[in-house]
User: Which sequence fits this backbone?
């Protein structure tokens, strides 16, 4: 499951993984992951797996990115977007997403890294 949205820095619409920030009401990062997935896509799951933690830029930033994999997702609601968000949900088979990496289908560095964590967790990546 992917989202397509405009990103001002690149001045273009790109494809990304559903994501967002931990808000003050979120006690744990998993709560933010569940909320963001539901808000941005209308999908949810009862099975979230934390796959890894990344530092976007440890030289200049203190924030961390918590990566999660949702298994057996199902559509349960309409999108609940912020006023400034325009998002299209894209369902793409995992194999097509992986094939598209070389073509630049996924440009956001943290999202490519998160995908790597998910593949590792799914035992899709072999290290030999």
Assistant:
């Amino acid at each position: 499951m992917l989202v397509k949205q405009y990103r001002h820095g690149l001045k273009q619409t790109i494809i990304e993984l559903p994501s967002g920030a931990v808000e003050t009401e979120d006690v744990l990062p998993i709560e933010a992951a569940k909320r963001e997935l539901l808000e941005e896509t209308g999908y949810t799951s009862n099975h979230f797996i934390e796959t890894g933690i990344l530092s976007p830029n440890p030289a200049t930033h203190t924030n961390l990115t918590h990566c999660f994999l949702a298994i057996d997702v199902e559509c349960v609601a309409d999108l609940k977007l912020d006023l400034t968000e325009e998002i299209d949900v894209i369902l793409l088979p995992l194999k097509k997403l992986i094939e598209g990496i070389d073509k630049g289908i996924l440009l956001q560095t943290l999202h490519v890294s998160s995908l790597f964590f998910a593949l590792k967790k799914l035992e899709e990546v072999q290290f030999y």
About this structure: The domain at 2-121 is CATH 3.90.79.10 (Nucleoside Triphosphate Pyrophosphohydrolase). Residues 86 and 123 are 34 Å apart (CA to CA).
